[in-house]
Amino acid sequence: MELEDIVAVRQIFPVLIEDELFLYPFMITPIFINDSKNSSALDKALKDDNMIFVAPSKYENGRSFDEIYDCGVIGSIMRKVPLPDGRIKILFQGHSKARITKRISNKPLEARIEPIIEEELEPKKKKALLDVVKEKVKILSNISHYFSPDLLRTIEEGIDASRICDLILNTIRIKKQDAYEFFILSNLEIKLIKLIDLLVEEIETNRLQKDIKNKAHLRIDKANKEYFLKEQLRQIQRELGSDTQKEDEVKEYYKKLELKKPFMHEDAYKEIKKQIEKFDRIHQDNSEASMIQTYIETALDVPFEKISKKKLSIKEVIKQLEHDHYALEKPKRRIEEYFAVRELLEKRKINDKDGAKVILCFYGPPGVGKTSLANSVAKALKRELIRIALGGLEDVNEIRGHRRTYIGAMPGRITQGLIEAGQINPVIVLDEIDKLNRSFRGDPSAVLLEILDPEQNSKFRDYYLNFNLDLSKAIFIATANDISNIPSPLRDRMEFIELSSYTPNEKFQITKNYLIPDELKKHGLKAGEFSVSKDGIELLISDYTRESGVRTLRRKIAELCRKTAKQILLEETKKININAKNLHTFLDKKVYEIQKRERENKIGQVNGLAWTAVGGDVLKVEAIKIKGKGELMLTGSLGDVMKESAKIAFSVIKVLIDEGKLKFPKKALLDSKTNIYEQYNLHIHVPDGATPKDGPSAGITMATAMASIFSEKKVRSDVAMTGELDLNGRVLPIGGLKEKLIAAYKAEMTTALIPTKNYERDLKDIPQEIRDNMKIIAVRKFEEVLKYSLM
């Protein structure tokens, strides 16, 4: 059915409103729909026969009959596409001009439509007017950018006066009201005459604009003339040999590049050479010149050719580790194994891959020697050490580098580290890898996946350099405090080596043999001018520091050295001897790390063992019973896990009382008809109340405190314990055993109760000093705990 027939039959069509422009017949135009009225009109059209009337709006977002023009284009919907942002895109093909004769509906907009039929014009007159129109269009095209060559050809060869008018009006984009006045004209002669007037006006306007631009260009040309004169002067100076600075720089860059060429990838060579050529062509006053020069100098500073060629020697690694570190036996042995494999592969000329490229990650509390172990490795291998602090890093470009399109772009930290080290194969320490942050700037851990993967890091691309770097020759060592914070894909790339707390004896040896000699050198003191007695060091360790490592201990030694230096200069003292008696005169106050055990055995007070970020600690658990109804009250800033442990412990105690395995004095009963645990409320407290506490290892401690309260038996004050309970009374394994037993030993406990599985699995990791001086007992069931703890 033809369009005229459809309009004659239907007459009523949905109305779609277009905000931006007037549509003309025979145009195929995309229209975006994002409002309910247009959506309703579209749905109506699609439901019927895809025919719709499109009218332009008078105002922005006008959606009523009063806010739109009463004319438009009737046409068909060729395609409908829903967009991700919720809008709908349709492809509309216009067929004929039409106008609204009657409003039918507001939801959706519907109206009675009738076509706009233009009056026929005498052929001679039409041809004359069209010739004038085409002449004006040709003139306008010569002084403006309106008409493309194809459009100009279409107008030149066209004979349909109405369509030529529509093409011109759509191209020069006149105001909506002016477009409306042309649109509704049915008299073709008047329309062509008005169009000629409009074209004449456009020609005059464009000529005026062109004159203004020409005058502006004259002023610019004057500035350019000065520039070219200056450039000619520089060229003359160059010819005379008086200004060859840039030329010399370019020659130097090419010379450096050719020296590095045998050691770099082809893509790196091409990229740097391209930038040197660009720098040579560009004028030095150009703002881009300094950026290109900075890039060239940075890229040529990358030490492609500088490789530490010292052969690996496991003997030297062992010697350096033993020289720099006391204790840490397990980490040192693993490092030695790592380099033994690499040396063997090197000697037998086997390609260094897989097991030899394992990424080691040292983890443990602060100050236990994670970074210094990496430093010792670098010394033994005679390689430079690069330390990249990752704590709080959230911008992925800090590692990968910024693209040079950004202002202030710079290479990533890895590239900067290689440049500072002056080696392509240094030891790179990724410090605090567990403290990476993720933000809208990217996820740094994703870049580290590439850096730490032996299969990928031979082609690591720095965005600033824009070429690949070979990181496979570098040795990566990571450090962390808490490996649970490291993303699991990143954890999969590394082998973890734990560095746990030092025992008091280990701290004593480290202080005597390492810290004091180091601080004497740093403070300019001689060995005969400063000394600390054995009891002075022990008091310093036990009462003045609170840590797993020795960082605070080193600071205290440094403080003593500073005060010694001051006394030597002001009081002309020849030697300062520090011991347990006069230590308090040099240091401000004591910070008790772990309180010594109480000598008095008490009912309801048990020594538990806890793990903290700075090592182990002895955690007292207190309990009392109050007349009540069998309720359990918990205080001491306990976390959810410890609260659940207390509830489980309470249930285990109830079962033991019911089964008669936990005896209690008859006088404790307030009512013979109910169970004892229903006659009292229990209050469990873990001092101090301001410190948050949580973790799955206090089950047997809280259960022992409850058992002591109900049985009214005292708990041995020299016994400490750690372990979790299940509802059947089994003692479950825990973590951090070494730190906990060190804390018990420092607190002068004589006996420690630990889960059987931990005894079988972890006892070998406990320092011999602790095993020799403290009785460690494995317990499988809670009844065994009561046997060793209650009196």
Automatic annotation (TrEMBL):
SUPFAM superfamilies: P-loop containing nucleoside triphosphate hydrolases (SSF52540), PUA domain-like (SSF88697), Ribosomal protein S5 domain 2-like (SSF54211). The keyword Signal does not apply. It catalyses: Hydrolysis of proteins in presence of ATP. It comes from the Bacteria. ATP binds at residues 364-371. It is found in: Cytoplasm. Residues 600-791 form the Lon proteolytic domain. Coiled coil: none annotated. One of its GO terms (molecular function) is ATP hydrolysis activity. Pfam families: AAA (PF00004), Lon_C (PF05362), Lon_lid (PF22667), LON_substr_bdg (PF02190). One of its GO terms (cellular component) is cytoplasm. One of its GO terms (biological process) is proteolysis. PROSITE patterns: LON_N (PS51787), LON_PROTEOLYTIC (PS51786), LON_SER (PS01046). Homohexamer. Organized in a ring with a central cavity. NCBIfam families: lon. This is Lon protease. It comes from Campylobacter vulpis. The lineage of its organism: Bacteria, Pseudomonadati, Campylobacterota, Epsilonproteobacteria, Campylobacterales.
